Amino acid sequence: MAVVPYKDKDTSKREQVAEMFDSISPKYDLLNHVLSGGIDILWRKRAIRELRKAAASPPKRILDIATGTGDFALEALTLKPEKIIGMDISEGMLSVGRDKMKKRGVDQIIEMRLGDSEGLPLPDNDFDAVIVAFGVRNFETLLKGLTDMYRVTRPGGVCVVLEFSNPRQFPFKQLYSFYSRTILPLIGRAVSKDSSAYTYLPESVQAFPDGPDFLRIYEKAGFTNTKWIPLTFGVASIYIGHKLA
């Protein structure tokens, strides 16, 4: 059974995730940095460094899936691409992101578009790199979403996924479990006023097929030469995959 934010509703996971992010969008950036102690910024920087190393040549066109307010897209500017498309199912998150891009003067390079990760309104083989941070666990059907990401990646291109994962070693596994199930929902509820959003987060992380399990699905979607890089005792992970030229 799919993990969803609002258990009392019979709408699809996709609809509930969009509703949740619309609800928390004004406070999303603040909560991200507070709840992670700012380490989410370092994780994004590391993921882009790994993309730089994995790419055969500097990517000119980048697609940022589940872009939210665009933080990962902004970090990808260090690669000096010609164009970044940021796509998300939440218009609330995109609205915050568009304002952010205009304020930073990069809205001509980073374009924020409404779209579903599992049915991308984009042509085949269009992007040198596809990236996603903290978004794939929200897919209604993980394999379907990853397969569509593979479709829009050009031959020879690379895909980089940054996602939460479950620490495996004592005592960090136990400490993180206590924090994510007890402290995180309290802070999230107090700041965002959405009691379900930050209960959903640890539940979705717990249910997500991380590590080697994710790589198997990644490869089933078509990606080759895959790699898993755990971060911060396994709290997050970077996954790299390639599309054969």
From TrEMBL:
The keyword Membrane is annotated on this UniProt entry: no
Reaction(s) catalysed (UniProt annotation): a 2-demethylmenaquinol + S-adenosyl-L-methionine = a menaquinol + S-adenosyl-L-homocysteine + H(+)
GO molecular function terms noted in the UniProt entry: demethylmenaquinone methyltransferase activity
Record's keyword terms, sorted: Menaquinone biosynthesis, Methyltransferase, S-adenosyl-L-methionine, Transferase
Binding annotation for S-adenosyl-L-methionine: 69, 88, 116-117
Keyword Methyltransferase: yes
E.C. numbers: 2.1.1.163
Pfam families: Ubie_methyltran
GO biological process: menaquinone biosynthetic process; methylation
Domain of life where this protein originates: Bacteria
The protein's name: Demethylmenaquinone methyltransferase
Organism of provenance: Spirosoma arboris
